[in-house]
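Students often ask why we bother predicting the structure of a whole assembly rather than each chain alone. The short answer is interfaces. A chain on its own may look different once its partners are present, and contacts between molecules only exist in the joint model. In this exercise we take two input lines together and write out one structure for the complete complex. Read the inputs first and try to guess which parts will touch.
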Amino acid sequence: MSNNVDKKIKNSLNKNIEKVPKSLDSKIEDTLKGLKRKRNYKKQAIVASIIAFSFVGLGISTYSYANKNKIQSDIFDEFYISQNYKEYGIKLDKVLEKSNESNKNIREKEVKIESIVYDGYTVIISYKITGLEKKEEVESIFWKIEEDGKQLFDAQMGTFQEEEGSLRGVATSKIKKEKNRLNLEISAEINGEKYKLKEKIEVVRNKEAIREVRINKEIDGSKLKKLIITPMYLYLEMIPNKDIVDDEGMKIETLDGKEFQWTSSEMNTQFKIKSNFSSMYINNYKNIQGIRIKGKEKNIVITEKGEVYEEKN
Amino acid sequence: MKLNIFRKRSLVAQAIKGNEDAFSDLIRGNKLLMYKIANGMLRNEEDIEDAIQETILKAFENIIKLREEKNFNAWLVAILINECKAILKKNNNITYLEEQIEEGKRDNYSPIDILNGINILDNQSKEIILLYYFYDLKGEEIGERLGLNHGTVRTKLSRAKKRLYEILGEDYIYEQ
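Now the answer. The structure tokens for the assembled complex follow.
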């Protein structure tokens, strides 16, 4: 039984060793004391404003990919957002205003949207909140990103610097139906206090950078419908077999073998018969020459020109 | 549906940013793991000490390149295993995995076989299997540590064990 094998492996690796010998322990401490810093720290790239055009009078600011200025955000790096954000992200640096009465017992906070990325299917904002006093306040934070009055699905992540009372992170929202333009209202609630961005933010995706390939082929019992390739993510849509649902979706790689990292999957069941399954993969690559969707017995290859064919394993 | 993940800045993140104290704390937290691994691969105490000291220096020099902070253990162990291999080679005492494995089930496994097997897994699987075998954590606990859902941990652990059993020449029985 595998349980017995597991036990044997555990015994063999651990061999009743419960602590490090004293002589080794003191050598480890000596080594740690002797460490000298020899690093060259990454220089922060200069962040340039890339506001394309703005309709301040209407209370709407429009931001577009059209400008080629690049942004750098260590918070995107920290949460493994595609490295392509550097070219497709937009610098905002907008501070949200408090929209309800202040509670004098609570410390004043600054809630700031640093940048935004939109690829037509997913919108990601990076944010920074300062003036947080305790962990409970961090846990009470609720980001609200609305489009046409509808709350978008969202996930938020952040890193709390307790000593500084600051939280930096990203909030990610998926769009149900692809759109070239999004008109966003952004607000946040912290410990009962409400903050709102005074203007609406209109973000425009780079349509030219997005490709949609109809596949319509079966692989490992799943019917692949289409693959959408954006600078940030790959979205694979299919009617799945059960194994795929239990697993992490299919493996996808470039033609030269670089794997796209799976990030999430979701299922939409229709009339209890057919289920549409969509998997998201992080796209960290540029100039993709072609894509291979890997199956057990065969692969599906999509060429740069958008041709789709099957390939034996 | 809403997902909130807020966390304190991890020791690994601080170490990547150049915090020497954070790096030292990480090493102290992993010294027993390092000792068990080096002890499994090398026989001589001096060699074990050399391998661990060299691993600490290399890890410190290169931690800035560590991309996936949640895979720190796997990354550290990979450096250590390579150091142990270098010492074995220098001592003209190379152990070839293929020569050691015999057909059929065995009562005992050589740590060197197991560690060689673990070392060829991808980083995330390696991290999961290290937490499973050395720290005796359950799937849910591993998921909590690595920010992965239970299903993903179960699948990856199952695949990693299957691969390991294949390397060890053991029949694999899928655990539900």
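Check your guess against this: The two ends of chain B are 28 Å apart (CA to CA).
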